Amino acid sequence: MLRLTLGLPLTSLWLFRERIIAMQYLRIGRIRPRWGVVLGGLIVSSGLLSLPVVADEATESEQRLARFTQLLSTDEMQGRGVGTQGLDVAADYIAEEFRRIGLKTDVVDGGPFQKFTITTSSKLGEHNSLAWTGPPAEEGGEPTRIELELGDHFTPLAIGGSSEFDLPLVFVGYGITGEEEKYDDYADGDVKGKAVIVLRHEPQQDNPHSAFAGTENSRHAPFREKVSNAFQHGAAAIIFCTDQVEIERRVAQTRRRWQATIDSLMEAEEEFREIESPTLDQVEEHREAVEEQLEEIRRWGNRVRDQYDPVFEFNQAGEDADGRSLPVFHCRREVVERLVEASLGKDLATLEREIDQGPTPQSAELTGWRAVGQTDLEREEVEVKNVIGVLEGDGSLADETVIVGAHYDHVGFGGPGSRSPGSDAVHNGADDNASGTAGLLEVARRLSERSGRLPRRVVFIAFTAEERGLLGSAHYVENPVYPLDKTVAMLNMDMVGRLDDNKLIVYGTETAEQFDGWIDRFNETDSFDITRHPDGFGPSDHASFYAKDIPVLHFFTGTHEDYHRPSDDFPLINVTGMRRIVDMITELALEIATAPERPAFHKVERPQAGPPRGDGDRPYFGSIPNFAQEGGGYGISGVSEGSPAAKAGMEGGDVIVKLGDRQIGNLEDFDSALRRFDAGEKVPVVVKRDGNELTLEVVLDPPR
Asked: Which pLDDT value is given to residue 622?
């Protein structure tokens, strides 16, 4: 059958182009000419159809990698977001490529797709209410009923479910059961079938010697941990309110940033007054600067007001309920306090102080009081699919499996996963992870073109919904096509398209006894500057397999300013670097598939996990980590535009060695040190740049 340079059979190219054209009809809401040159035009305009036919294997490989990466990262793919037609088009294309290069693609119900359903979005329905009912205010009177106002007094949270309820109320402090800390808010009471009132965070937040990770958040602090604990104790509804320490911290941080803006205005005013005879241009420039600073002062002033006991937004604690139906709310502290004080004769601040003194739980039933209401949450679900192709083995080891994987989804048109807030532009994800998907296809092609079968089976999986929390790989390991106890290793590619200064990052290097030696041997040819991370956990699909005691290697070329932004486009891809990485992965896959003995799994001891990121518990700095940095500080690959780090003059390549009076040896040191400062503070930062040490000053912003 005639084949074009694109690499698809002519009929498949036709169907693929027609699918994209049909997708565009739906997207823009108008008809384009049937013969509008969409995919073909893209390829011609980019020069891909005009690439010369050459015999050099490396050049041919780079041409394929370029075609695959560019095709998967065109605007027509809609950023390959979950729920977009572009993601389905990408899945069809990958499946067609698997078939074309000779992989077995009938392994899941006669086809290549391992399908499952996920929730893509949640929203509040029409019927959401909450009220307190209790004893009459006067003897012989009507029972008390306090109606709460949606959006002002309370918000149902997306991590809860839909239900009608009329439940007794119990105050359970911070809702923590900590065996190591010898603390249990549920120890002396029964909450089965009851609504529990839970404070955010944990006891003794200002005590550096607290059993709960000192002044940092421990694993007990996140919403989901508290919901899980309440669920395990039989609670039928959860009502969160903000603790006093958090309110005071947020108000103080925002007030400091407000004051810093005022101080900056005053400094600018003093500098202007020192100009004896300002020109008209200087006057106009000063006027514009003053207006801009006044607007910023007004904005921060409004934020100070908003930090006094705000009610959370619907999605602020997360976006799904993990299959639970119990209602979860966030309430203003003041409306919870009225209830607690009426029942227990103490306000929440007093109870918090009493808890801190031990720490000693102060849980108690609110006798006579009940929570009455309804939650109505509407969830939209969509079917997604992993794409699987198989190269069968032959011989006594044929029932053992090597997995090569990469995720093919991205963040679509932005939203919660975007690092460009408010943008609805297509996030093409050329590096993340069109590059890894293209690498997956290239490894599959090379192994399939070898003469004779390999001793072990090699399974190629393009995972979906990685950006939603490794959902595709998590689904596979819970529903494996081939037994996990016979799965000997997993090789993963995620963001392999930006090789810079020859630096390659490899995770999982000590998850099998043989891995370090193999990497050394193959790197004699490839000569990468490799940063090794022994651990098999991390923010990509390899972690799902490592959690099942399977050796893993994860390949990554580092973060950059375009990560999860619309600017992650094909022209920035280092195709030659991709090809060299694919060379190494292909050799490693061959080694694993042909070795007489399977890799010997090794569980790597992890360092103590740091506090959770992104929970609004530390000031905003704005640096982008350089994961290839080894020793001697916290290296950054860049800074976010307009961030405190950018305003201070920090640059990609800087290595932070001191923050305030804290020495910085790595990212965890930096994270810990940053949490000791407040927004609005001017903090000295010592960085190494080109062999010299510089001291810069950063004015920290409130948490984001």
From this structure: 86
pLDDT band, very low/low/confident/very high, at 284 (cuts 50, 70, 90): confident
Residue 128 identity (one-letter amino acid)? N
Q: What is the CA radius of gyration of the chain?
A: 29
Q: Do 599 and 512 meet the contact criterion of CB atoms below 8 Å apart?
A: yes
CA–CA separation, 129 and 321 (whole Å) = 19
**Long-range contact set of residues 176-182: C-beta below 8 Å, sequence gap at least 24:** 176/202, 176/203, 176/212, 176/220, 176/226, 176/229, 177/229, 177/233, 178/211, 178/212, 178/218, 178/220, 180/211, 181/211, 181/212, 181/218, 181/220, 182/211
Q: Is 621 exposed, middle or buried (0-12, 13-18, 19+ CB in 10 A)?
A: buried
What distance in Å separates the CA atoms of residue 331 and residue 132, rounded to the nearest whole number?
A: 12
Residue of 70, 649, 158 lying closest to 376 (CA atoms): 158
Residue 37: φ, ψ to 5°: -80, 95
d(Cα 353, Cα 362) in Å, to the nearest integer? 10
Closest CA to 390 of 404, 380, 373: 404
Bridge-based pairing state of the strands 364-375 and 552-556: unpaired
Average pLDDT, the chain: 85
Per the confidence metrics, is the pTM higher than 0.85?
no
User: Which ranges of 29-181 would DSSP assign to H, the alpha helix?
Assistant: 39-46, 57-72, 85-100
| Residue 285 reports pLDDT greater than 80 | yes
Q: Is residue 692 packed enough to be buried (19+ CB in 10 Å), middle (13-18) or exposed (0-12)?
A: exposed
657: Cα separation from own chain's centroid: 26
- Measuring CA to CA, which residue among 303, 159, 317 is closest to residue 620? 303
Give the C-alpha separation, 407 to 85, whole Å: 17
Helix residue ranges per DSSP H, 469-508: 471-478
Measure the CA angle with vertex 208, ends 204 and 212; round to 5°.
55
CB 158 within 8 A of CB 377: yes
